[in-house]
Amino acid sequence: MGIWDKLEKHAKAQFLDVIQWEEDDRHTLVYKFPIFNQAIQDGSKLVVREGQVAVFLHEGKLSQVFGPGTYDLSTKTEAIWSFFESIKYALDYPYKGDVFFMSTRQFTDQKWGTPSPFLLQDSEIGPVRVRAFGIYAYRIQEPATFLTEIVGNTGLLTTAEINGQLKRKLVSAFADTVSESKIPVFQLTAQYMEIGEALCGQLSSWFEKNYGIRLTDFVVENISLPPEVEKMLDKRSSMGILGDMNKFTQFQTANAIESAAGKTGGGSNALLDAGMGLAMGQMMGQQLAGATAPAATGAAVPPPAPSAEPTFHYNGPNGQSQLPAAAIAQLVSAAPGQRHLVWKAGFDGWKSATDVPDISQHMGPPPVPPADGPPAVPPPVPPPVDSE
Predict the structure, then answer these.
(1) Is CATH 3.30.479.30 the classification given to domain 107-230?
(2) What's the confidence (pLDDT) of residue 293?
(3) Which pLDDT value is given to residue 10?
(4) What is the dihedral of CA 131, 135, 141, 142, to 10 degrees?
């Protein structure tokens, strides 16, 4: 190509007066300025806004990094001096290189999460599978390293294109940090802040050295356990809330007796409730007697006295329960035509309640069938006597 052909070629090129990047979104990390078939003329300006840097590459090699500000590009500008030398001596393309703009602001609210549970060895319950998720933030700290290791010759780079690689590293480091901390799973929820700060400090220098990125924040929003472990945690919390189990048992027994006494109506259900209430009342009485009687003297609390009323495993119309003999006798009397079986230690099998002397002694004579004719009308209830 002759000298005049080269001059004609440059005459058709568009000379650049201002080189700048006007960001139009909050997800773009790198923008490659279009230099192809355009010439940077002597005296043109480079505008770098706050939160940006401009990187010049000449023939694939880093030439210079410009921070925020306005720069006059001339023969004294190291980044493009070779361009003016090419005009002077050979009139090749004005600038055999590229201009990259990078955003150096923080990219916040980037989400991370464990794609599958990871195994955590807990000192109390053994191995358990754990999931976690949260958010993180980062910024470009070393533009040259970031351009070399991540960008390459990409014309446009967004957060979506590198977040996958960052998240994989973060999740791996998170699993290692939690495992090495030896924190019991029951206490992980109280350590979110400490885990996040430790991981951010641990990874920030690694990201800066290898990617040119500084990790500015790492937040753990949730660490979830398997459903069966969460149920165990709920039971453990409930036990701590209940405190004294003996007092709780007495309270529950008193409520059950009050509920049974408030029920109305006849039938075997009501009698069964009454029998169970009687049994619970006896047990509560024994507990209260053992808990309160010696308190006045300050002596040691003796064990509760054995009950004189024998109890049996009862199997009747309303299912199974453990009741005293008197309560079973009431149920038999209330439903004589039903099957009432009992058993206790020493029996060779279930027996009819009426065949057990301890129960039958509480039962009255069988009811006399009514005579023929209309039933007798009971006398009216006398009115109450006025005490005045």
Answers:
(1) yes
(2) 46
(3) 46
(4) 40
- Exposure string for 208-239, b = 16+ CB within 10 A, e = fewer: beebbbbbebbbbeebebeeebeebeeeeeee
Spatial CA neighbour of 56 closest among 117, 99, 27: 99
From residue 322, alpha-carbon distances to 73, 288, 327 in Å are 98, 21, 10
How many other CB atoms are found less than 10 A from the CB of residue 98?
Answer: 20
Nearest to 104 by CA among 51, 33, 32: 51
Q: What residue spans define the domains of the chain?
A: 3-103, 107-230, 244-288+311-360
Does the CA dihedral 157-161-163-167 come out positive or negative?
negative
**Is it the case that residue 151 has pLDDT exceeding 80?**
yes
246-305: per-residue pLDDT in tens? 665 666 666 666 665 555 554 445 545 545 555 555 555 555 555 544 444 445 656 655
* 198-212 pLDDT per residue, tens: 999 889 989 999 999
Beta strands in 225-376 (DSSP E): 311-316, 319-324, 341-343, 351-352
At residue 136 the predicted structure's pLDDT band, cuts being 50, 70 and 90, is very high
The amino acid at residue 10 is H
Token code pair at residue 150: 């991540």
How many C-beta atoms lie closer than 10 Å to residue 260's C-beta? 18
Residue 110: CB atoms within 10 Å: 19
